[in-house]
Specification:
Blueprint: E1 3-7, H1 11-23, E2 27-31, H2 34-41, E3 50-54, H3 62-71, E4 78-83, H4 87-95, E5 100-104, H5 108-122, E6 136-139, E7 142-145, E8 150-153, E9 156-159, H6 162-173, E10 178-180, H7 181-189, H8 199-211, E11 221-224, E12 228-231
Parallel strand pairs: 1-2, 1-3, 3-4, 4-5
Antiparallel strand pairs: 6-7, 7-8, 8-9, 10-12, 11-12
The chain binds calcium ion.
Length: 233
């Protein structure tokens, strides 16, 4: 059983999600405004397995909720709900640390499928989530456990989100090659290669904080100017 926080101010949507997620065997909590959600996320005594986060909320918007959680080192998977036709919101939601997104109105089946994927990839079932590549990689002082979504670093154990794992995998699989930003956007986030966003750069900055001895002089994930990034073991 997983513990899921639904952050949604429209009661009929929140109730519908609760009903259906409980039917799948999950423990569901609802926060109906951003401030309540941020407080719940800050409670380290009761960790969550997943957050379904609407962006347009009273008190505090969903961007700020996600930003605060990530800034506090909470990397619980976040599934973002955005208004239809708001590509900018979706991209910004990912930049603030969302792992996946759905546009409203969404199909319930689609939401439940996304939830299953995010939860499955979070769980340590001893199976490589993508069914390809080695389950762990070691470089420098770092060991990445792809199957556990964890990374051992000199500064301690880091829990990784699905996008962080996917980005690392994409770079490591092309070790030594300069990988274009557009390829990463498409492969890791499912966005069009031409999307104007700093999402790749903000995730690279995050990964560098975990793996680089000096993040301002990276040795493992290096920038290729005007192009993208290259992984060096
Ligand atoms: Ca709303």
């Amino acid at each position: 059983m997983s513990r899921i926080l639904v952050v949604e101010d429209e009661a009929h949507i929140a109730d519908g999600l609760r009903y259906n997620l409980e039917a799948e065997g999950h423990d569901v909590e609802i926060a109906s405004d951003g401030r309540a959600a941020a407080e719940r996320l800050a409670d380290a005594q009761r960790p969550l397995d997943l957050v379904v986060l609407d962006l347009m909320l009273p008190e505090m918007n969903g961007f700020e909720v996600a930003r605060r959680a990530r800034a506090a080192g909470n990397y619980v998977p976040i599934l973002i709900l955005t208004a239809k036709d708001s590509a900018e919101d979706m991209v910004r939601g990912l930049e603030e640390g969302g792992d996946d997104y759905l546009t409203k109105p969404f199909q319930l089946d689609e939401l439940l499928a996304r939830v299953r994927v995010l939860l499955r990839r979070r769980r340590w079932d001893g199976v490589d989530p993508d069914g390809e590549g080695p389950r762990s990689e070691q470089f420098g002082d770092v060991t990445v456990h792809f199957d556990r979504f964890e990374m051992e670093t000199p500064r301690g154990l880091v829990a990784l989100t699905t996008r962080e794992v996917a980005l690392l995998r994409a770079l490591i699989d092309r070790e030594g090659q300069a990988v274009p930003r557009g390829d990463l956007l498409e492969e890791v986030w499912g966005l069009k290669p031409g999307t104007r966003t700093r999402v790749v750069d903000s995730f690279v900055a995050r990964l560098r904080k975990y793996i680089e001895t000096d993040p301002s002089h990276p040795r493992h994930i290096v920038s290729v100017r005007g192009h993208g990034y290259r992984f060096i073991r």
